[in-house]
Amino acid sequence: FETIAQQIRAVGVESTVAATDYGMPQFDAPAVGLREYVKCLAAAQFSPEDIRRMVCDNPALLLRIT
């Protein structure tokens, strides 16, 4: 995950959408995967505001649902 965290820091949370490929039959439910991903982001010292931006705000902007 450290490589992912470095890449996010390099491009910035402003342009990052955090998502997973969970939901496929070989993986747990999407909510489980996203919860684990958020835990990893927090452990990598991303702030709650940055995590919300990557998980909620940026995808909403991308999909034009805000």
Could you name the key traits of this structure?
globular; 66 residues
Describe the overall structure.
There is one protein chain. This protein is an all-alpha fold. The chain is 61% helix and 0% strand. The chain contains 3 helices and no strands. It has helices at residues 2-11, 30-43, 48-63. It is globular, with a radius of gyration of 12 Å.
What are the SSEs and their pairings?
Elements: H1 2-11, H2 30-43, H3 48-63
Distance linking N and C termini: 30 Å
Major sheet attributes: none
Computed over alpha carbons, the radius of gyration is 12 Å
Number of helices: 3
Which shape, going by the Cα principal axes? globular
Show unreliable segments. Answer: none
Structural class, by secondary structure, is mainly alpha
Beta-strand level of the residues, as a percent range?
A: under 5%
Would you count the extended β strands for me?
0
Helix content: 55-70%
Q: Helix and strand succession?
A: HHH
How confident overall, as mean pLDDT? 95
Give a quick precis of the structure.
With 66 residues, this protein is mainly alpha-helical.
